Amino acid sequence: MRIIKAETIHDAVVDLVLTAARYLPDDVKQAIADARENESSESAREVLGQLLENADLAAESGLPLCQDTGVGVFFVEMGDQVHVEGNLPEIINKAMVEGYEKGLLRKSLCHPLTRVNTRDNSPAVVHVDIVPGDKIKIKHMAKGGGSENMSRCTMLTPAQGWEGIKDFVIRRMAEAGPNPCPPTVIGVGIGGTFDLAPALAKKALFRPLSEPNPDPELAAMEEELLAEINKLGIGPMGLGGNTTSLGVKIEMRPCHIASLPLAVNVQCHSSRIKEVEI
Amino acid sequence: MATYELTAPLKDEDVKQLKAGDVVKLTGTIYTARDAAHKRLCDMLDNGEELPFELEGAVIYYVGPSPAPEGRPIGSAGPTTSYRMDTYAPRLHSLGVKATIGKGKRNADVCKAMEEHTGVYFGATGGAGALLSQCIDEAEVIAFDDLGPEAIRKLTVTNFPLLVVNDSHGNEQYAKPNYEF
Q: Do B8 and B30 meet the contact criterion of CB atoms below 8 Å apart?
């Protein structure tokens, strides 16, 4: 059994939080630059140019890319040969709080009904999967509220199948229009249970834009959905254009014979994700 | 499509000339307010209390900025999604608010209120909060400090880049999705 000190996890998570908020991942930046080349509309090119300028400014100045520095979401893949000294979700939450304070990131969490701010961005959302091995991988996403609000899940019937999935996803994005800060990235969770489908959709968003699903059939479905979404013509910030989404990522697993759970998790263009392996 | 340089607070004639798609560089004094602050403002109106800023001619920016680093008035400060304030916007337009700044679609009630009371809805680029903060020269919390990022701030801005999304004549600039609902 490999023993990892709480401090090691803590320092790694503080670094993840600070980096994700300030540095747009290279693949996202490249996708925005490529989209700018492919746009003929002046407003689309203008918006995409501003996003690239914003990314450079954030990296240079240390200002967060977006004022909505989001909910601190963490997906942990914990090796079954690892023992962490301490309570892992508590260590992650404490480190997240420290990172948000240190990095002058916005504290965006509140009581759902009184709307009183928790003042330190806690609690973090932490998912833990146990995997084989003696390493621990921590994936962090700073998830903004505007795009999260445009996300939906539903329980389709088995008869609706792939056509039903396509209809739901495309209709959702047509309805969302300019609201989630397009060009977006779309995570689609298919299968599992009512609670699992949205988690799959969120997990899908961690896959780099350049990486299609390893299953060729699912990869083809991702391409088909992306093409259909971009045909909507919503464009950057909803002002029209070829680029409504930068990517669609699907995660799928078996479900009950009665069900076809489906979730669409919408991510804005400021897709702030970062991971570390310890 | 034209480009205008305007100074806030705004007058009816500033707003009337604007058409959806026009670019505006806004200079002057504007106020931040988002979800929780709007609820409190409307509660104050219900109770007949005096509001923390003058609504006549006011420009309201839907933003909850990140904390200010040393030597800067404000942190990142881009727009939040506007539809959540649709509940409150018609009432505020009827009391003199001339413009709101945000991102995303407004509902029919807000558009109607802007036609009736000569108001305009400006879009700023969402997710460009670091860049937009460079146009903010001063920021001061004037109400609801306990709301943290949702407190009302008085901002002094110079050449803040805006696009007219909904004008006071019923026009909208957003692309209609190629989709039959």
A: yes
Using CA coordinates, name the residue in chain A closest to B181: A171
- Which domains are assigned to chain B? 3-166 (3.20.130.10)
Instruction: Name the residue facing B80 among A47, A146, A233 (closest C-beta).
Output: A146
**Residue B169 a catalytic site member:** no
Provide the residue type at B67 as one letter: P
**Predicted pLDDT at A125:** 98
Measured between CA atoms, how close is A112 to chain B, in angstroms? 12
The domain boundary, picked from A143, A162, A181, lies at A143
| Pair of tokens at residue A72 | 């601190």
pLDDT digits (tens, 9 = 90+) for A71-114: 999 999 999 999 999 999 999 999 999 999 999 999 999 999 99
What pLDDT sits at residue B1? 86
Angle between helices A26-38 and A42-61 (to 10 degrees): 160
| Residue of B76, B149, B179 lying closest to A108 (CB–CB) | B149
Taking CA atoms, A278 is separated from A4, A10, A79, B78, B107, in Å, by: 9, 11, 10, 35, 49
User: Which A-chain residues 113-172 have CB contacts (< 8 A) with chain B?
Assistant: 115, 117, 119, 145-146, 149, 170-171
